[in-house]
């Protein structure tokens, strides 16, 4: 990247950053499945949930990234544990096997569908092979993972659990050059509501929507957006990413992860079919 954006380094996660919520179901006997756990928001969520004493089945195709996530959990002295499960989320058999492996670790009650990717191009120019990959990873695999997780939650003694989907401000409105991403995030809203509709009030579905988060994916996106729009990387940050927000700083991965911690907890039992929109004012204000 150019010197303009060299200060954009995802911050190191510390124990003090993690929200800890007392909850009778937050024990090492309880399993939370987290996808995309090898980096970014997925890694932070895996570490945050493990810091709340849960056993985390951490899914990602990146084996080295998963090992780093385990190390980060150790560095913050997480009371729970992170168990890495290498998994290609676009492979149906692999997803089913990963859920069964997670169930061997304890009682599955929670799942966070976080894995995602981005591609910057207009709808007219969008490559369909890229669209298909994004669909399989970001919409089909959350649907499939939920299909396999729900029976495990329903089989618990009280049927209590939750499935959370990583949405976005782009699940609320559309901007240019991100048609596939926007389509997938809007689709996750429907999946979230479908889970809530079928969950009998104890098995909840909810989503998390945020603005721009300081992750490796976002840092890479700055270069793509600058090239696509013919502007500098600094202009992307100031005008495109933060231009509409009232809060003039990007979120950190652990700030997003803490929303999943709260959403899974008993304090959020009325969060069902809804969205935790922490967007700094993107979707509700304008100039």
Can you walk me through this structure?
- With 287 residues, this protein is of the alpha/beta class.
- The protein has a single domain, classed as NAD(P)-binding Rossmann-like Domain (Rossmann fold, 3-Layer(aba) Sandwich).
- The protein contains 8 helices and 7 strands; from the N terminus they run βαβαβαβαβαβαααβ.
- It has helices spanning 40-51, 63-75, 92-103, 128-154, 179-198, 216-229, 233-241, 253-264, and strands at 30-35, 55-60, 81-86, 107-113, 161-166, 203-210, 275-278.
- Strands 3-2-1-4-5-6-7 form a 7-stranded parallel beta sheet, sandwiched between helices.
- Strand 2, helix 2 (63-75) and strand 3 form a beta-alpha-beta unit.
- Helix 4 (128-154) packs parallel to helix 5 and helix 6 (216-229) packs across helix 7.
- The longest helix is centred in the middle third of the chain and has 27 residues, at 128-154.
- The protein starts with 29 loop residues before the first strand and ends in a 9-residue tail after the last strand.
- The model is unreliable at 1-6 (pLDDT under 50).
CATH homologous superfamily (4th level) name: NAD(P)-binding Rossmann-like Domain
The mean pLDDT is 93
| Quaternary | single chain
Number of domains: 1
CATH architecture group name: 3-Layer(aba) Sandwich
- Residue stretches low in confidence (pLDDT < 50, at least 5 long) are 1-6
Decide which structural class fits the backbone.
alpha/beta
Q: What global shape is seen?
A: globular
Q: Report the count of strand segments.
A: 7
């Amino acid at each position: 990247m150019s010197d303009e954006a060299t200060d954009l380094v995802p911050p190191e996660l510390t124990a003090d950053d993690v929200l800890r919520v007392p909850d009778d179901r937050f024990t090492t006997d309880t399993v939370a499945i987290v996808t995309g756990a090898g980096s970014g928001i997925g890694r932070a969520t895996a570490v945050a949930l493990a810091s709340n004493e849960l056993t985390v089945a951490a899914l990602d195709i990146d084996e080295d990234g998963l090992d780093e996530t385990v190390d980060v959990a150790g560095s913050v002295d997480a009371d729970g544990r992170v168990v890495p499960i290498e998994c290609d989320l676009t492979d149906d058999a692999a997803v089913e096997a990963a859920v069964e492996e997670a169930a061997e670790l304890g009682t599955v009650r929670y799942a966070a569908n976080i894995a995602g990717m981005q591609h910057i191009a207009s709808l007219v120019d969008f490559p369909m092979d890229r669209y298909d990959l994004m669909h399989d990873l970001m919409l089909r695999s959350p649907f499939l993972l939920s299909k396999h997780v729900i029976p495990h939650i329903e089989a618990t003694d009280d049927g209590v659990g939750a499935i959370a989907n990583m949405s976005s401000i782009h699940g609320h409105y559309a901007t240019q050059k991100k048609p596939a991403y926007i389509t997938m995030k809007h689709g996750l809203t429907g999946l979230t509501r479908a889970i809530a509709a079928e969950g009998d009030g104890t098995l909840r579905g909810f989503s998390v929507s945020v603005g721009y988060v300081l992750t490796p994916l976002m840092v890479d996106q700055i270069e793509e957006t600058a090239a696509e729009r013919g502007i500098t990387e600094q202009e992307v940050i100031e005008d495109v990413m933060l231009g509409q927000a009232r809060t003039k700083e990007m979120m950190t991965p652990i700030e997003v992860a803490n929303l999943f911690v709260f959403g899974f907890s008993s304090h959020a039992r009325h969060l069902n079919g809804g969205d935790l929109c922490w967007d700094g004012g993107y979707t509700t204000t304008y100039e």
